[in-house]
Recover the amino acids of this structure.
């Protein structure tokens, strides 16, 4: 499936699309209504191109049908329930049949295999187990490959390090922000993490930049591979980079049909153009979704990859529509700020953005930690002048602050107030990092 010709893949997708349309039309009242309103019947779906005739599904539709209204099978066929907590109100609920769990294991196995995992590996799974799909998703994928899984879950950072040393873990599955936290704690404990057998991190569940990848690879002495997914579609395993190219995430296209649309008009965009990702689940039984709008921004590349796979690749997700800040008219994603910050070796990859409204103006404060080295110099200077200089007035720091503000202005076009913070002063995350504090609401 991962090396089919484009034409054969489209054939498979067309056939599967027709079947899933039939199932949802007959089993889910919401879809019967939505198809009827759009004036389309399942039997009119003849090829994958007909997907454009189908209505979209949104998170609001899932909420309106909370908890099980979108399920397409009776509860006796559901063997697992997961849920993702949103920022407001009730969680989004998804149900899996036995076949769904099997398919999920399969796509996760493909992803992890593409990222270099084999039966010889010891996979330390530091994604949270529970309603969140990260833990069990990576667990089943690793088992399907035949690797040895350590189901340690998120948190417990010191224990993570103990097991990593004692068991010789070779693959780490975790959020990128948690990996950085593990690195910090290792450093404090005097552990040289780069000298351990760990060789690859399969990281995702939150946006991260290429600069962050470099930072993680250098510090940890590993390859860092991006994996993408969301509970509504299956969990992790929708797409993943291959180890060979680390250039775009191979979509498991025979299970998940991706489209990019203009978020304002809903019109499909051609390959290469950035827009909102929309996915149709071609094989799901428990809760199949037609043209589900993810709010995530990406673009698609159909060119075959050097790894030999022919599946479409999606660009790394730089952020969600919902995460986008509009600061005095400029659209800003946190990951863009992250890229600029990490171009400076004096800064650490720990940052937070604080948005406030002063009168009618939105202001953006960028809090970022400085490196231990420059912090030490600042401290020494403060001591030598008998405490007369406070931290943020130390000349090197003033220059650094100005430089970063200028870079952000030049590259992203937004004026910010950069606040340099002492090392370890910004809260660490053991799961998804919270990058934005919005004080406007
Ligand atoms: O985060 C599933 C997952 C677990 C993916 C482990 C990868 C690894 P949710 O909690 O439903 O599911 O959150 C899904 O997280 O719509 C994106 O906005 C974001 N996201 C997930 N992976 C990435 C990534 C899991 N690699 C939401 N890059 C998605 C950027 C990501 N954003």
């Amino acid at each position: 499936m991962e090396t089919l010709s484009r034409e054969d893949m489209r054939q498979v997708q067309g056939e599967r699309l027709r079947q899933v349309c039939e199932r949802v039309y007959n089993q889910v009242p919401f879809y019967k209504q939505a198809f009827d309103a759009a004036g389309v019947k399942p039997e009119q779906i003849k090829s994958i191109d007909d997907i454009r005739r189908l209505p979209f599904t949104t998170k609001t539709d899932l909420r309106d049908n909370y908890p099980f209204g979108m399920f397409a099978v009776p509860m006796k066929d559901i063997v697992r329930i997961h849920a993702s907590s949103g920022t407001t109100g009730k969680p989004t609920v998804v149900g899996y049949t036995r076949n769904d769990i099997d398919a999920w294991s399969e796509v996760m196995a493909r992803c992890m295999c593409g990222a270099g995992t084999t039966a010889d590996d010891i996979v330390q799974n530091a994604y949270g187990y529970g309603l969140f799909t990260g833990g069990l998703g990576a667990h089943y994928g690793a088992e399907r490959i035949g690797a040895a899984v350590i189901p340690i879950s998120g948190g417990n950072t010191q224990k993570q390090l103990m097991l990593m040393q004692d068991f010789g873990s070779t693959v780490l599955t975790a959020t990128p922000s948690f990996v950085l936290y593990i690195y910090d704690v290792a450093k404090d404990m005097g552990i040289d993490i780069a000298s351990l057998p760990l060789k690859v991190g399969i990281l995702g569940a939150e946006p991260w930049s290429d600069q962050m990848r470099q930072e993680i690879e250098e510090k940890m002495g590993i390859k860092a591979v991006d994996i993408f997914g969301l509970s509504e579609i299956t969990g992790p395993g929708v797409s993943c980079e291959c180890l060979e190219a680390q250039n775009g995430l191979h979509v498991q296209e025979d299970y998940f049909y991706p489209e990019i649309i203009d978020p304002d008009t809903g019109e499909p965009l051609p390959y290469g153009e950035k827009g909102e990702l929309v996915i149709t689940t071609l094989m799901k039984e428990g809760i199949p979704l037609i043209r589900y709008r993810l709010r995530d921004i990406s673009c698609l590349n159909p060119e075959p990859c050097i790894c030999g796979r022919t599946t479409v690749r999606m660009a790394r997700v730089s952020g969600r529509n919902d995460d986008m800040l509009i600061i005095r008219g400029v659209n800003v994603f946190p990951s863009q700020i992250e890229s600029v910050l990490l171009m400076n070796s004096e800064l650490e990859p720990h940052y937070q953005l604080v948005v406030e409204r002063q009168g009618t103006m939105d202001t953006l404060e960028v809090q970022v930690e400085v490196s231990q080295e420059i912090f030490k110099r600042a401290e020494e200077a403060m001591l030598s002048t008998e405490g007369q200089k406070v931290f943020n007035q130390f000349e090197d720091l003033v220059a650094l602050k100005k430089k970063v503000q200028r870079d952000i202005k030049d590259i992203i076009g937004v004026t910010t107030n950069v606040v340099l913070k002492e090392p370890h002063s910004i809260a660490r995350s053991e799961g998804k990092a919270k990058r934005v504090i919005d004080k406007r609401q």
